Amino acid sequence: MNRIRLILHRIFRRPAVTGPYRLYIRRTPTGAMLDVEHYLTAVIQTLADNSDLLDLLMEIEEDRRNARAHKHDGWEPEELLVEKLCTALGYELPLYGDAVTRLADRLRAVAPAPAAVIPAQRREGGAAA
Questions:
Q1: Cβ count near 85 (within 10 Å)
Q2: What is residue 74's predicted lDDT score, i.e. its pLDDT?
Q3: Domain total of the chain
Q4: Quick one: which of 109, 104, 111 has its CA closest to 29?
Q5: How far apart (Å, rounded) are the C-alpha atoms in residues 66 and 64?
Q6: What is the extent of the structural domain holding 76?
Q7: Mean pLDDT per 10-residue segment, the chain (129 residues)
Q8: Are 39 and 19 in contact (CB under 8 A)?
């Protein structure tokens, strides 16, 4: 169901950012959802195409499996490996030129309205009481 909702959203809405990775924004009752599937797809393809990065991911998985098998003492040996992988893959989405203002405008458009406080409620204890 979620996948169908995403596909319909992409058919009827233009992306907030078109390049280098398409970024869609969808309003939710409490805020917004950022759809970064194109960036995530690029990251997965980079992992699949680079054997060194794939080996690093497998080493992280092995360290996590070993940590679960033994009593955990709080030390997470894979953290350095995760940091190395994040550095190699990149964890920032580049925005160029007008994409910055288009993204800001779209986010402002989907932002929920601020809650109105009625002074009488505040004096009488209102909803908090």
A1: 19
A2: 62
A3: 2
A4: 111
A5: 5
A6: 38-92
A7: 71 79 86 88 93 92 80 70 88 88 90 74 57
A8: no
